[in-house]
Write a structure and sequence with these properties.
The longest helix has 30 residues. Helix content is about 75%, strand content about 0%. It has one domain: MFS general substrate transporter like domains (Growth Hormone, Chain: A). The protein is mainly alpha-helical.
Length: about 400
């Protein structure tokens, strides 16, 4: 187990550790790399490779669900092994290695392969990295620590599309050249993680057996409040289908191909500005109230995107989508960490992301079917309905999502 953080001096406890800042910049670099590609990929598949919108939705759903499902295994392994950083390194390494495949892709199949490798890497690194943030964060600053890492991550998600758009304009819509440039920040992320983050030591007798996080006794320590957070996250993800549909919706409104990354630039700009302040707010107010407001914001965004044909309505919907992410993404991670025992955090994040991954696969597949069969407005209207369902569930459990108080075994 890591050293007991409550013993930290008050002055140190008020500061977010340098290792969390470094993890944030690792996320920033990898997101620049990924979003340079992802901000163009749906349009590249539809216009260059001739992929159907239904297939784009299926590929995006499979890719993102793969990432979230793999997290359950990496989270359990990090708890069993007692190490977080090596798994994070492996995951970021796979993400960097996948980037050249996008530039080489001439078929939808190779794009799917690259997306799956990239997302397997994301899945491997996700739960150990989140557990490492929770291990490193001083008490009372966990929401701020998750918000900071998420904010830096989202700065990368803002800069990546901005670079992609600039290079597309400079190089006359040369998708593949932009994809090659995206390799560079991915490699830099791996180097920074290798040399810039030191994992805290864990107290464990040399001859002590490694605990199995998946025993019945350990799983019983994941109590009802934690499983309610898991269920809430799963229903929430049904309303949070892939952002590829935001890009395709923008092109329906006449946005030129080279300017498609503007959608993610606007979304992630709002997200980056809001993630840290809302993370700090999560340390000071009711988690359920903040999550409820986030769901309301997402529902309004969905309704605007369903109804909008004017660019201003479009822009408002995109901005509100980014705002809801700032309000809820770090918050959900904080709720998982708060309702799970310290030495089962990797496993807890893994199961949370397994449920969320299955929901995301279903959500993105349904979104593609609605789009093809009923039109784009039906896709976003369905998202608003799922927001309402999540709000009802949150209201029913509003008094039972308490933090974990039993000390770890």
């Amino acid at each position: 187990m890591p050293p007991q953080q409550p013993s930290l001096p008050a002055t140190q406890a008020r500061r977010i550790p340098a290792a969390i800042w470094a993890l944030g910049f690792v996320s920033l670099l990898m997101d620049i790399s990924s979003e340079m590609i992802h901000s163009l990929l749906p349009v590249f598949m539809v216009t260059v490779l001739g992929t159907s919108v239904w297939a784009v939705g299926l590929i995006e759903g499979l890719a993102e669900a793969t990432a979230l499902i793999v997290k359950v295994f990496s989270g359990v392994l990090s708890d069993y092994w007692g190490k977080r950083k090596p798994l994070a390194l492996l995951g970021y390494g796979l993400g960097a290695a996948s980037k050249p495949l996008f530039a080489l892709a001439s078929t939808t199949g190779l794009v799917l392969t690259a997306r799956l490798i990239d997302r397997v890497g994301k899945g491997i690194r996700g739960a150990p990295r989140d557990a490492l943030v929770a291990d490193l964060a001083p008490p009372g600053l966990r929401g701020a620590a998750f918000g900071l890492r998420q904010s830096l991550d989202t700065v990368g998600a803002f800069v990546g599309p901005l670079l992609a758009m600039g290079l597309m304009l400079l190089w006359a819509n040369d998708f593949r050249a932009v994809f090659w440039v995206a390799v560079i920040p991915g490699v830099l992320a791996v180097v920074l993680l290798l040399f810039g983050v030191r994992e805290p030591e864990r107290e464990r007798a040399p001859d002590a057996p490694r605990p199995n996080p998946l025993t019945r006794a350990n799983l019983k320590r994941l109590e009802a409040p934690y499983w309610r957070v898991v269920a809430l996250g799963a229903v929430f993800m049904l309303a949070r289908f892939s952002e590829a549909f935001l890009l395709l919706r923008a092109t329906q409104g006449g946005l030129p191909l080279a300017l498609t990354p503007l959608v993610l630039i606007g979304l992630n700009g709002v997200y980056a500005l809001g993630a840290y302040p809302f993370g700090k707010l999560a340390d000071r107010m009711s988690h359920t109230a903040l999550l409820a407001w986030g769901l309301v914001v997402l529902a309004v965004a969905d309704l605007l995107l369903a109804a909008g044909t004017h660019w201003a309505t479009f822009a408002a919907g995109i901005a509100l989508w980014g705002l809801h992410m700032a309000m809820t993404q770090g918050l959900l991670a904080t709720m998982v960490a708060d309702t799970a025992p310290e030495n089962l955090r990797g496993t807890a994040f893994g199961f949370f992301n397994l449920a969320s991954g299955l929901s995301l696969l279903l959500a993105s597949t349904l979104a593609g079917v609605f789009w093809d069969q009923l039109g784009a407005p039906a896709t976003f209207a369905a998202g608003a309905v799922f927001c309402a369902a999540a709000l009802l569930l949150l209201w029913a459990w509003r008094n039972s999502l308490r933090p974990h108080t039993v000390p770890p075994a």
